[in-house]
Amino acid sequence: MKPCVFCAIARGEAAADVVMESPDVVAFLDHRPLFPGHVLVIPREHIATLGDLGETMLPHLFGSVQRVARAVESALPAQGSFVALNNRVSQSVPHLHVHVVPRNARDGLKGFFWPRTAYRDDDHRARVAGLLRRALE
User: Fold this and answer.
1) Among 18, 23, 54, 80, which is most exposed with the fewest C-beta within 10 angstroms?
2) Which positions are catalytic?
3) Of 6-20, 89-103, 105-119, where does mean pLDDT reach its minimum?
């Protein structure tokens, strides 16, 4: 089995634009965002699917998802947010992760056809991460 890149991010061994950390949860920018500010929220512990998540971790993980969704909506030009979680199918990394995506009316996102984009450059990505970090403080 390949080493888990999300576990490496959680341990600080792999590069990521982390926007929030707690003892149990890490949130960082998706490197292939649907829109700038697309965040992945993960448990630090390697947990593959939502079904594998212990009941005591639910408030930690989804409390963090709620905080990130609020930050995305307040820090970015977003009218709302889209929150999603895949289990196995379409789960590109087999580590539980919740997508928090900024949304606006007529933003082009149609159903589950998600055209991936890129940040304009490293400065753009760093600026978006900084906005979210400040909103989460």
Assistant:
1) 23
2) 97
3) 105-119
Tell me yes or no: is domain 5-136 CATH 3.30.428.10: yes
CB under 8 Å to 63, separation ≥6 — which residues? none
Number of neighbours of residue 102 by Cβ within 10 angstroms: 26
The pLDDT tens digits of the residues spanning 100-118 come to 999 999 988 876 555 678 9
Query: Per-domain residue ranges for the chain?
Result: 5-136
pLDDT bracket for residue 1 (50, 70, 90) = low
pTM comes to 0.86
Nearest to 63 by CA among 41, 79, 78: 41
For the record, the structure tokens of 8 come out as 């490496």
Contacts for 133 with CB less than 8 Å, ≥ 6 apart: 19, 20
Q: Which of 11, 1, 2, 20 is nearest to 65 (CA)?
A: 20
Nearest to residue 45, comparing CAs of 33, 56, 30, 32? 56
